[in-house]
From TrEMBL, chains A, B:
Record-given protein name: Enoyl reductase (ER) domain-containing protein
UniProt cross-references to PROSITE patterns, sorted A to Z: ADH_ZINC
Residue intervals of the Alcohol dehydrogenase-like N-terminal domain: 30-137
GO molecular-function term, one example from the UniProt record: oxidoreductase activity
Pfam family, one: ADH_N
Origin species: Glaciihabitans tibetensis
Assigned protein family: Belongs to the zinc-containing alcohol dehydrogenase family.
Keyword Metal-binding: yes
C-alpha cells in the first residue's frame, strides 16, 4: 500500500510500504485494519517538517484519519467489518483508570500512530491507505450507518482539531456566560471558538490577522476580532473586559509568545486552557500566576473521550467544524499538502487516498 | 501604642509607634480603627525573619488579626463601633470587578498590611495593638454579636490559614468523592485537610513527618499519613491510588521540592491547587504538565470571599481550625513567637495584645 514517510526537513514522500496485518502480539486479538477514507496534515506535523523537531530516521507520519473497517481480530466485539469509524490521534483502550477518568491520552496501554505501541508493535501512520488499529474497541468510534459524503471533513476533525479545540474550552472552564479569548487562528483555534460558542460563551474574541481565518472565526461564533499582539493585544483585551481581561483564554499555538499573550489576557482568577504542543517549553511565570490566581489547565487533548458528545452535532449539522479545511488533495500529493501548510497557503489540508 | 517592627534577619521588636487615626486621604471616610484582640505569626512572615526575603529598612509586620471596632469614618455604613470583626490578610473594597469575581486579593483598590495602600497611605501591620483598616465596609466582616472567647483561635484562622487551606482545596477542584493529597503540614496544610473534608473528599492523605501535626491532620479528617518524600513519596501515593496518583493535590509550602512533589503525586487529568507563596520561583515543567493534563490552579488566597461561607461553621463549632495554634503568647513576646516558629517549636503562635 501507499503511505507517507518523512525523511527530514521539508522531505515528505509517498511510498510503497507493507500492508498492515492483524498482529500476533500480546493484544493481537484486539486489532482492526481500517481502510483510510480521509486523513489530513496537523500543525504539529510541521514541527518535524520544519526541522524544529529532529527526524532521526525516516518514519511514518500522520495521526488523523477516518475510514472503513476491513478486518478485525478475534477479541474485537464492538467494531465490525464495514463500520465507518473515527480514530482519535492516538491509541487507547477506554477501560484503564486514566481512560475512565476522561484522560484517554494517558491510556495505560495506549500508543501513538507512527510509533511503537506499548506492546512494542509498530503502529502505522495515518497518512496512508490503511492503518492497523490496536485496541480497536477502545480506540475507534463507529458512526451509525454510512455517513453522507458531505460530512467527511467535519467527521475528520473529531480525530483531532475539533476535540482539541473543545478540550481547550473545557480546560479553560468555559460555561454559560463566560467571556473568552482565543489565541491562535489555526484549525485548533478556530475549533476552540466553535467549542466555546456551543458551551455558552457570551463573548468570544478571536486574535487573528488573516482575513480568511477571521471569516471562519466569525462564522464559528466569534463576536470580536483583535489583530494586535503582544502588549498592544493585551491592552485591547483588557479594555474590552472591565480593564481586567477575560474569564477564559484558549491557548492554541504552543509558543512562549502565545502562552504569554494568553496568561496576560486572562483576568485575575480566570483560567488559561492550553492545547498548543509546547514547542521549546514556554516558561510559566509562577509568581505572576500566583499573584493573579490565573490557573493553567490543559494538555494533549483526550479527544476520544469527546467523540460521543460531539458526533451527534456533526451528524445533525448543528456544528460544521470541517470548514477549517481549505484545501483538499489526493494522498499522492502529500508533499504539496505539507508545503501549502508550511507556506501558510492553506490552514488545513484534507488528503484522500 | 505598641506594634511589631522587623529590622532584619532574626530581629523582630515590639515598639511604641503612633496611634492610628482615621486618615484624611482619598478614601478617608472609609476607614475604621480596630483594637486588636488577637493576631498571629504566619509562615510567610518567616521568609523575612530568616533573611530569605530582604528587609531593606525597618517595617511593620503581621497580617492576620481579629478585633473590636473603636472608630469608623463618615462613609462606613455596614461596620459599626463595637463590632467584633475579622480582617483578611489584605485590604479590599468588595465592590470592584475582581472582588465581585471572587478574587478580592486582586482588588483594584486594595493593599497590604504594613505597606502603603493604593492611595499611598500607610497601613498598619497586624501584630500591634490597633490597626487602621481602609475600605472597612469591604475588608471587615463582623460576627453576629460578641463571640465566645473560646472561639478566638478559630475566628483568627479565617484571616488567613483556614481560608487559604480552603482556597487550595477549591483550586484543586475537591468535591464529593475526590481523592486528595496534601503536601505541607503547617497550619495551611492542616487547614487544607479540614477544607477537603468538608468539601466531601473520600480519602485524604497528609504528607507529614511530625507526630504532633499528624495528630491534628487525623483529627481534621486525614485518612492516611505518608512520611516519605521525593521519589519514595510519589511512589507511595501512586500505589495508594490505582498506580496513577490522586485527583487533587494541595500544595501548601511554596518550594520547588514541594511543587514537584505535588505535580508528580497528581493523576493524569488531576489538579494541583497551590497556595504556598512561591519562594524562589518553583519551575513548572510545562511539557510534563502538557503530557499528563495536570492543571495548576491557585495563588494568593482570596480569603475575604470565603469568610461568609466558613464563619457559620466556626461559630457553630462544626469546624475547629483554631487547633492549629499550639502556642499562645502576649504581644510583648512577639520575638519569642517568631523564634518558636522558626525553630519549629511551634506550628503557629497566637498573640494577644
Amino acid at each position: 500500500m501507499l503511505a507517507t514517510v518523512i525523511y527530514g526537513e521539508r522531505d515528505v514522500r509517498i511510498e510503497e510500504v507493507s500492508d498492515p496485518i492483524l498482529t500476533a502480539g500480546t493484544n493481537s486479538g484486539g486489532d482492526a485494519i481500517v481502510r483510510v477514507v480521509a486523513a489530513c496534515v496537523c500543525g504539529s506535523d510541521l514541527w518535524s517538517y520544519r526541522g524544529v523537531a529532529e527526524v532521526a530516521e525516516p518514519k511514518r507520519i500522520g495521526h488523523e484519519f477516518i475510514g472503513i473497517v476491513e478486518a478485525v481480530g478475534s477479541d474485537v466485539s464492538k467494531i465490525k467489518v464495514g463500520d465507518f469509524v473515527i480514530a482519535p490521534f492516538y491509541v487507547c483502550d477506554m477501560t484503564c483508570a486514566n481512560c475512565l477518568n476522561g484522560v484517554s491520552t494517558s491510556c495505560l496501554h495506549g500508543g501513538w500512530w507512527g510509533a511503537d505501541d506499548r506492546n512494542g508493535d509498530f503502529a502505522d501512520g495515518a497518512q496512508g491507505e490503511r492503518v492497523r488499529v490496536p485496541h480497536a474497541d477502545g480506540t475507534l468510534v463507529a458512526t451509525p450507518g454510512q455517513p453522507d459524503p458531505s460530512l467527511i471533513p467535519s467527521l475528520l476533525t473529531l480525530a483531532d482539531v475539533m476535540g482539541t479545540g473543545h478540550h481547550a474550552a473545557v480546560s479553560a472552564g468555559v460555561t454559560t456566560g463566560s467571556t473568552v479569548v482565543v489565541v491562535g487562528d489555526g484549525a485548533v483555534g478556530l475549533c476552540g471558538i466553535l467549542a466555546a460558542k456551543r458551551l455558552g460563551a457570551s463573548r468570544i474574541v478571536a486574535m487573528s490577522r488573516h482575513s480568511d481565518r477571521q471569516a471562519i472565526a466569525l462564522q464559528f461564533g466569534a463576536t470580536d476580532i483583535v489583530e494586535e499582539r503582544g502588549d498592544a493585544g493585551v491592552e485591547r483585551i483588557k479594555e474590552m473586559f472591565d480593564g481586567i481581561g477575560a474569564d477564559c483564554v484558549l491557548e492554541c499555538v504552543g509558543t512562549e509568545e502565545s502562552m504569554d499573550q494568553a496568561i496576560r489576557s486572562t483576568r485575575p482568577g480566570g483560567t488559561v486552557g492550553y492545547v498548543g504542543v509546547p514547542n521549546g517549553g514556554p516558561v510559566l511565570p509562577i509568581r505572576d500566576l500566583f499573584g493573579s490566581n490565573v490557573g493553567v489547565n490543559g494538555g494533549v487533548a483526550p479527544v476520544r473521550n469527546y467523540i460521543e458528545e460531539l458526533l451527534p452535532e456533526v451528524l445533525s449539522g448543528a456544528i460544521n467544524p470541517g470548514l477549517v479545511f481549505d484545501l483538499e488533495l489526493p494522498l499522492a500529493e502529500v508533499a504539496e499538502a505539507y508545503a501549502a501548510m508550511d507556506e501558510r497557503r492553506a490552514t488545513k489540508v484534507l488528503l484522500r487516498p
